[in-house]
Specification:
This protein is α/β, with parallel strands linked by helices. It is 58% helix and 11% strand. A hairpin with a 7-residue loop joins strand 8 and strand 9.
């Protein structure tokens, strides 16, 4: 829904496959595995974490994605050219040694598609971060795994496989998420830091090594770009978050505009909590230009003082958690003064 199929296409190509289209309706009805001689490179082992909405809306796509690794694991190809088969063989042996039946071990070794359990949605990170009920990345990882630990098979069935997901993520080298339009960005929706940030945090915790994290931009199909997450974050930060045109535009929407500004601060904090990508100077600029600027203060106090209070508290939390390490003392004092003033007005 969000990327128009970019994610599915990318996974197929990394696996070394192509979709098979039904000529009349234009629907994808099957897939073709490209031989290594045509592919010209090794296949790439892909683990997919899909949303609950995708799981419910696109059952055929779920079964397609779940079937491909199963077929690749059965191919008689050199292990250095087919890491899916290499990992599956290793997993089968390990799971068999743990006492699982050969058939069960084989099924688990082929799983590459994970999501939340049936009837469940999201990653659990938004309510966790909103409540502040976490201490470190380990807490974020545990929630992310619990909310996304169901492995989906080619017949559409699923079971909770937390240990298997841990094993999968402990070998991940690259985290990638796509976006196909300019109507939104990674700092105006919580989905981005929940899924991409959650994956980054979990891989970092489980692997004890930070993965390379990328953001695919196909908003212009003629000029598809892949940027590092930090590059994309900096681009959005400069072009939208601190853009006077956006700030003035939000003011025209009164209460809702103030809410969107505060939400942007929340999502920025969420990305830093999961990915550690916000620099101290960026926190300082957000504080000064979005919250402490005199015009902004007047706007918030007139239309939505609670949004100003919540955003200021979020920045202070970032300092308390040492995400914003070298904050200017005067800036912290000003944020605290804003909160006290609003609390006084409300009382």
């Amino acid at each position: 829904m969000r990327t128009g199929g970019d994610d599915i296409a990318q996974a197929l190509w990394l696996w070394g496959c192509e979709p098979v289209w039904e000529p009349v309706s234009g629907r994808v009805v099957d897939f073709e595995i490209l031989p290594l001689s045509v592919l010209g490179r090794p296949r790439v082992d892909v683990v997919v974490r899909v949303s609950g909405m995708f799981r419910d809306a696109f059952g055929d796509a779920m079964r397609l994605l779940s079937t491909i690794p199963k077929r690749l694991a059965a191919l008689e190809e050199p292990l250095d050219q087919n890491p899916v088969r290499a990992a599956a063989l290793e997993d089968r042996e390990r799971l068999s040694q743990e006492g699982l039946a050969p058939e069960t071990a084989e099924q688990l070794a082929e799983l590459r598609v994970f999501s939340s359990g049936p009837g469940c949605y999201g990653t659990g990170l938004l309510p966790l971060i909103d409540s502040g009920n976490w201490e470190d990345r380990k807490d974020l990882t545990e929630v992310f795994l619990k909310w996304g630990g169901h492995g989906y098979r080619s017949d559409g069935s699923s079971t909770e496989e937390l240990e298997l997901l841990k094993q999968r993520l402990s070998t991940v080298e690259i985290v990638h998420q796509n976006q196909d339009n300019r109507e939104h960005d990674l700092l105006d929706s919580d989905d981005y830091f929940q899924f991409q940030g959650g994956l980054h945090a979990a891989v970092t915790e489980l692997r004890q090594q930070t993965p390379a994290t990328y953001h695919g931009d196909s908003s212009n199909p003629e000029k598809v770009r892949v940027r590092t997450l930090k590059e994309e974050f900096n681009r959005v930060f400069r072009s939208r978050v601190l853009n006077p045109k956006w700030i003035h535009g939000m003011r025209e929407h009164g209460y809702k505009g103030a809410f969107e500004m505060a939400a942007t601060v929340d999502y920025l904090f969420g990305y830093d909590a999961t990915c550690d990508i916000v620099a101290d100077y960026q926190y300082e600029e957000v504080a000064q230009k979005l919250l402490l600027d005199e015009e902004q203060q007047d706007f918030f106090k007139e239309h939505n003082p609670l949004a100003l209070r919540d955003a200021a508290q979020r920045l202070l939390e970032a300092h308390e958690r040492q995400l914003w390490e070298n904050a200017v003392p005067e800036t912290l004092d000003a944020l605290e003064a804003s909160i006290l003033h609003i609390q006084g007005e409300l009382e």
